[in-house]
Amino acid sequence: MRYLIGLGNYAMGDDGIGLRVVEYISEAGLDTGFKVVEAGNDGILVLTYFTEDTERLVIVDAADFGGKPGEVTTFSPEDVNSCKQVGTVSTHEGDVLKLFEMARRVGLPVPRTDIIAIQPARMKPDQGLSPELERRFEEYVRAALTCLGEA
Amino acid sequence: MSRNVSINVHHITRVEGHGNIVVNVNDGTIEKCEWQVPEAPRFFEAMVRGRHYSEVARITSRICGICSVGHTLASLKATEAALGIEISEQTDLLRRILKHAENYDSHVLHVYFLVAPDLLDVPSVFPLVPTHGDVVKRALRMKRLGHEWGSCIGGRTTHPTRAVVGGFASLPGAARTVREAEANLSELKDKLLAVVPDAVETFKLLCDLAAKIPAFERPTEYVGLVDDFEYGLYDGKIGCLMPDGSRELFDVEDYRKVTNEYVTDQSTAKFTKHNMSSYMAGAMARMNLNYDMLHPEAAKLAEGLGFKPICVNPYMNSVAQFIEAVHSVYMSVEYIDRLLTKGLKEEKPVAPTKYERGVASTEVPRGILFHEYAYDADGTCTMGNCIIPTNQNHANIQCDFEKIVPEMLAADVPEDKMELGLEMLVRAYDPCISCSTHYLDVTFKK
Fold it and tell me: How far apart are CA A35 and CA A38, in angstroms?
């Protein structure tokens, strides 16, 4: 099975972009041939998809990759170094890239994964997206579907 | 015995949020023995003022990323009480299944990922892979079921989207037809029954590790929901159980008579007390209050694990959580059967009939939760009050510390073992001190 996973926090402005993209795809009924997982901040939940029967993971998340606000890029976990200082995986704080390191270290099967990273403009308590991300929302949806071979 | 002890655990690990353990013993005299909560207040009660009733549960759900279902349901019920809304039997049963999903999901997370490492002498669950790979895979499998269970009913397990004031915004599994929704419930039932072998293996693991659970006892008052319909979880009256077995029941509207919040210098979180200097909320309190209402399959496991009410060892809270997780599986299967036998219906959310003040309570994994709101004639919130279970447990943790530290000193327990024992005690309460958010920060490899 292929999974589209949305990460982030709805209540922290652009941090919610991953959740909003996968929620849109689910509500619009575009999730054919794959399953949508709204994981929020639950890194351990993402780990539960590191199993033999997972053919493919596509993760949508906000990421500071030095781009312009709203810019989107796709990479695999092997393409980047994480600059984030996180002690461990918890539901309180997380870094999805640490999950891949951990899974490899402990011998869990690591599925083929692409991360659709969106450069945030505004990370602060806010129920909405910044105008920069709002304007390009359809582009993010297309990027997710293209990555899964559905567009 | 004259000895010096200096324990300063700054931000205990494997709990949600930040708490400190400070114990100073000078020449055998305890100078400081504190459970400290340094988190900043988050002002949710102020945030809901001025918001429409349809938005309030969406906001207060964010109080916690683990207990967001419970916060959503307590918020919806309080708003519905204020707005004179009577929900349907179908909504009631679906909400109960959703509540059980959260309870199971959180308990599996706590027992396997936060508590088991202490019992297996490792710093986290992941070093167990080379030696206990089957345990880790089982933990991940069980955790995933919790997510799929909650998502089927609520749209999402964390911050559910389908549960709204007056009912549900859509059918289980985002079904477009009743028949499709019933098929989704049948599939969920199959998944629930499929977890039974993993639950049995977890039971065996806990039996093997039972001797490592510290034998500490401190009778206290136990507070939790008591419901005529089922084991107190989704709804009911406030039950207060004293160590001698006597109990009182309070209407939820009278929650302030039980919680009696007060401020203390050692904590930014309020403490609570009722008949004694503190009370305990959570799985162990619920089981002490509702033991006879456990599903028979869960009761068998409770017996096998040596849980007998009134249990007064707070370390047994983790055992109670596992038993509750199994109870939640079987009760949800029963509720699904009931819904399928009767047949699902397309239902629109029930509309308000008045705009006044309402109070509600729902248990969350860590204990009893209260929400209260008042609304003006436009349906705008004018007042909010939320009392979360971790706040209600802080005073009880402090009282446990005040009994166990002298016992540890009398038994000449080494300082590192004292520290671990106190950390395990705090973790047993599964405190959920706060939630926040973070995002990726990367550079590309050249």
Answer: 10
- Among candidate residues A33, A64, A38, A10, the one with its CA nearest the CA of residue A145: A33
Residues belonging to chain A:
151
Report chain B residues whose CB lies below 8 A from the CB of A88: 13, 124
Write the residue in B16, B129, B438 that is nearest to A107 by C-beta.
B129
Q: Out of A8, A41, A44, name the one closest to residue B113 (CB).
A: A44
CB of B440 within 8 Å of any CB in chain A?
yes
**A24 and chain B: CB distance < 8 Å anywhere?**
no
A146 Cα to chain B: minimum distance (Å): 22
Does residue B87 sit in helix, strand or coil? coil
- Predicted confidence (pLDDT) per residue in B336-384, tens digit: 999 999 999 999 999 999 999 999 999 999 999 999 999 999 999 999 9
Percent of chain B topping pLDDT 70: 95
Cα B57 to the center of its chain, rounded Å: 18
Low-confidence ranges of chain A (pLDDT < 70): 82-94, 150-151
Contact in structure between A2 and A55 (CB atoms under 8 Å):
yes
SS3 for A28? coil
Q: Are strands B247-250 and B279-280 parallel, antiparallel or unpaired?
A: unpaired
